[in-house]
Amino acid sequence: MFLLAQNQTLSNSLRELEADGLITRHDDHQVPPSVTYHLTSLGKDLAMTMNQLFDWGQELYSKKEKMVEH
């Protein structure tokens, strides 16, 4: 039951990402069925922005830690 809910959540998330233009879905036309997803240009831009935000957060955290140490 739990695995079914996880699969449905993943499927819903992938559909939303595709609808938002962040990923594309490719049916590999294989047996058993195989589907792959790829980032679009917009998805790659978002990933880069998120990485920059993460780096900024790490830098800010490090600065705050140094301030507390002194």
TrEMBL record:
Q: What InterPro entries does the record tag this protein with?
A: HTH_HxlR, WH-like_DNA-bd_sf, WH_DNA-bd_sf
Among the GO molecular function terms of this UniProt record, one is: DNA binding
**Alphabetized UniProt keyword annotations:** DNA-binding, Transcription, Transcription regulation
Q: Does the keyword DNA-binding apply?
A: yes
Which SUPFAM superfamilies would you find in this protein's record? Winged helix' DNA-binding domain
In what residue span(s) does the HTH hxlR-type domain sit? 1-65
Q: Where are the transmembrane segments?
A: none
Q: What is this protein called?
A: Transcriptional regulator
Which species is listed as the source?
Answer: Lactobacillus helveticus
Organism lineage reads as:
Bacteria, Bacillati, Bacillota, Bacilli, Lactobacillales
